[in-house]
Amino acid sequence: METIEEKIARVTKEEVALAVYNPNWPQLFEKERCHLISCLPADIVKRIEHFGSTAVPGCLAKPIIDMLVEVTSLEETKKRIVPILEQQGYDYFWRPSRGNDIPPFYAWFIKRDANGKRTHHIHMVEKDFKTWDALFFRDYLIDNSDVAREYVDLKRQLAKTHTQDRVAYTMAKGEFITRITKKAIADQPA
Q1: Could you count the other beta carbons within 10 Å of the beta carbon of residue 86?
Q2: Considering only CA atoms, which of 174, 170, 167 is closest in space to residue 10?
Q3: Burial level of 72, CB count in 10 A (0-12/13-18/19+)?
Q4: Whether 94 contacts 69, CB under 8 Å
Q5: Inter-axis angle of helices 4-12 and 166-186, nearest 10
Q6: Integer Cα distance of 184 and 190 in angstroms
Q7: Less packed terminus of the chain by CB within 10 Å, N or C?
Q8: Residue 6's pLDDT band (cuts 50, 70, 90)
């Protein structure tokens, strides 16, 4: 049986492969959203959002649907949701929000297709997590095509540099994402 260390090593070394925008991505999100609603406890799962690059029309992205799921309790998520999704074949990780082993932690799942290829990343957090700021970033890219193009150029460059290192790829995007997210929040109407 695979140890947690072996599992982390395996998933972080999977290839960073970008794809042109696929107009089916919103439907793939919706299909998975409906699936989660149908199989998970309604008293724990609240809103479910599509975020990340696959949620930005025209954006180059890893062809993996990022989903942000509000849960009422991460402890209840561990007890009641993790067993359901693991039984269905999802990889589960108790993951830090920022950096290595820096709280707060959250539940993260990888869904794969029949060939083992990632199709969805499901991030389960409580309503007060800073992770929700990702929606400001998503919406800003949707509303500002010049910034979205700048992000695509950065991602293209980083995917070449960090082809086999998902952690380095993600970390290298961090400054850009943080800067644009702060701008998006600052631009919100009072």
Answers
A1: 12
A2: 167
A3: middle
A4: no
A5: 70
A6: 13
A7: C
A8: confident
State how far the alpha carbon of 134 is from the alpha carbons of 8, 15, 188, in Å: 24, 23, 14
Q: Position of tokens 């724990």? A: 44
The secondary element (H helix, E strand) that includes residue 15 is none
**Predicted pLDDT of residue 39:** 98
Please name each of the domains of the chain with its CATH number. Answer: 4-186 (3.30.460.10)
Q: Do residues 144 and 137 lie in contact, with contact meaning Cβ atoms separated by under 8 Å?
A: no
- CA 121 to CA 39: how far, in whole Å? 17
CA angle 124, 89, 104 (to 5 degrees): 25
Helix (H, G, I), strand (E, B) or coil at 40: coil
> How is 134-171 classified by DSSP, letter by letter?
HHHHHHHHHH-HHHHHHHHHHHHHHHHHTTT-HHHHHH
CA distance 102 to 96: 5
Token pair of 111 as six digits: 């869904």
Tell me how far apart the alpha carbons of residues 20 and 13 are, in angstroms, rounded to a whole number: 22
Q: For the whole model, what pTM was predicted?
A: 0.90
Rounded Cα distance between 14 and 72, Å, is 31
Three-state secondary structure readout of 60-83 = CECCCEEEEEEECCHHHHHHHHHH
Q: What is the pLDDT of residue 100?
A: 66
What are the tens digits of pLDDT across the range 42-67? 999 999 999 999 999 999 999 999 99
